[in-house]
Structures are given as C-alpha cells and as structure tokens.
Amino acid sequence: MTWTITPEPAVSPAAAALWRAYYTEVSDRYYLLHEGRRTDPAELEREIAAETWDELAPPKGQLLVARWAGEPAGTAGVRLLDPQTAELKRVFVQEHLRGKGGAPLLVGAAEEAARAMGARRMILDTRSDLTEARALYARLGYTETEPHNDDMYAEHWFSKELVN
C-alpha cells in the first residue's frame, strides 16, 4: 500500500470529511484536557459551518489531501502570509493510519507547495497537548521560535527555512 498526495478543493467530499475528523479530534483533546468533556455536537457543527477554507485556496494557498490505498487519509494546508513566508495549517492523518509515514510526506508536499508560491520560510503554531505534532515538526527540521501570532490556542510556534 502507498500514499498519494494531491491538491484538492476544500469543498470536496474527501476534504470536508477529513476536516470534520481533524476538528473533532483537536477540539475533543482540548475540551477533555481543560474541561473534562468532549466537544458539544452543536458547537462542532457551528465551527465546521463557519470555516470557509478560503485561506487554503489558490493562488495564495493550497489544501493537500493524502490518500492511503486510494482512501482519504489526511490533510495539510499551506497559505502564503507574505511573498517570503508561508504558514503550515491543519496537518492531520487519521488515527488508524498514523505511523505509516503519511505526516512527513504531507509536510514535505506542503513545503513544496510553499516554495512553488515563492515562500522561503514556513511557520506554524500548535498546542502543548498535540505532542505528536510537536515531535514531528522537530524531527522535520522545524525550530521553536517566539510567537508570531496571537492565536488563543497557540502555545508553540515553529519556523523552517525552505531551501531549494
């Protein structure tokens, strides 16, 4: 079995299903850690409906969908913040497919997309409870930096120079 990664519109059925899985997991992790509960279903639906994904659409962004044996398995997004800087967003692999090498491939594909848009640096933010993500970024050459935004959920910020 192999991975394939291709750009895809955020409104596609595969991307929408993966966004729902991503948001459910990260939201549940947050609420379980901080409030001892899962995400309220009504809140989940409101947040999903509020997301436009415009930031991950060409020409200033791109959403990548990974497939494992042809089935939607994960996502990564990239958006251009300025002519030199791109931001990595929503790196996600479905839980049952983790450990099969998909996440590094998604990040690599996002880096290539950022380079194609002219970026020379990739930044990202994440939370403390997303320990797997922080370990992945460090393993892929990202270094922890000072905050670059004021996102209320961000607790760790990373950067990587994109050399050709």
Automatic annotation (TrEMBL):
Name this polypeptide is given: Acetyltransferase
Ranges in coiled-coil conformation: none
Domain N-acetyltransferase: 16-163
GO molecular function ontology, one term from the record: acyltransferase activity, transferring groups other than amino-acyl groups
Keywords assigned: Acyltransferase, Transferase
Stored InterPro entries: Acyl_CoA_acyltransferase, Bact_Acetyltransf, GNAT_dom
Keyword Transferase: yes
